[in-house]
Amino acid sequence: QSQRPRSPQHQSPTLISSCHSPRGDSEEYCTVRHFSISGRKVVNRGDSFKVKKSTSGHSVASIGSTGNDTESPRLSPAPPAPYCVAVLGAPSVGKSSLVSQFMTSDFLHAFETFTGDRNDKTVTVLLDGEESELTFTDVPYAILKRRDQLPAIHGFCVVYSVTDRTSFHQAELTLQQLSADGSIDRRAVILVANKVDLARGRTVSEQEGRILATACNCKFIECSVVICHHVDELLVGLVAQMRLKAGVAVAGPTKAKRGRKYRGAKTSSSFRGILSKLRITKSNSCHKLHVL
């Protein structure tokens, strides 16, 4: 098994919000995670740090470079595209751990607690030469809607645990809310099945997750934060989906692709009805995070 790439600047898995620059002054740095897509595979190119802003307000080149100190810092041609992602789900499904692992390529050991401030839940992703800045929030959907903050959200991660069927039903209700207000048509929405490493305790099958995602016309992925399984793929998929949705919005309104109405999997009859009607080809496409 190949090891995950590690940045030489990472001395600990916790997110560093500030440190001293080589010139001795105090600067605020942010993590930049580098990825590329080769075929269907996500390639992790490692992490670096860069100064968030210079005195002129522009972002500065990575501090990991080994150029001449007398040379002026290279200014990036444009700031990274900002995106806000809401991470929704029942308690204890792994939302905080998932966001913590998004922040670094370093392996965060099982059950490690995220020690950063709420404002530290921001990471820059360099994917195929283009930077995007992702800020994560775990504010519940009802509060976002009540505060009229939904327009500021670009993507949703709806998380459940494969060992907790109640959390799956809550994810189902959340997707119904997102579908009702039009968020699934306009924004990136990914249904995330966490804790797949706990195979013996699984109560929600992968097929059930695919059926729900297909019925609600959103994307789907299974992962395990504890063993870092498919975490990078989810992060890159989020970036790809938000870029694609933004491109559709710029191109103008089109006829929305509606998913099948999903009435829930709590009763065996409704579940069997959906299972018999959904086509396998459509169900298989929900895991392709790099296409609409």
From TrEMBL:
**Which Gene Ontology CC terms are recorded?**
plasma membrane
> What GO terms are given for molecular function?
calcium channel regulator activity; GTP binding; GTPase activity
Comp. bias regions, Low complexity: 1-13
Signal sequence segment: none
Give the start-end ranges of region Disordered.
1-26, 52-76
The organism's place on the tree of life at top rank = Eukaryota
Question: Is Transcription one of the keywords?
Answer: no
Composition bias, Polar residues: 54-70
**Assigned keywords, A-Z:** Phosphoprotein
Specify one Pfam family: Ras
Belongs to which family? Belongs to the small GTPase superfamily. RGK family.
Q: What is this protein called?
A: Uncharacterized protein
Please name the source species: Graphocephala atropunctata
